[in-house]
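Quick sanity check, Phage integrase, N-terminal SAM-like domain:
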Amino acid sequence: MSKLIKRFKEDLQLAGYADRSIQSYTSAVLKL
C-alpha cells in the first residue's frame, strides 16, 4: 500500500512540474 502512495506522490510531483513548465512557457510566449 505504501508503494502505491509513494507512486501517487511522484505522479503528483511530475504533474506539478509539468504545470509549472507550461505556465512559464505560456508567459514567455506572451512576453514576446
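Posting the structure with no commentary besides this: The chain has one helix and no strands.
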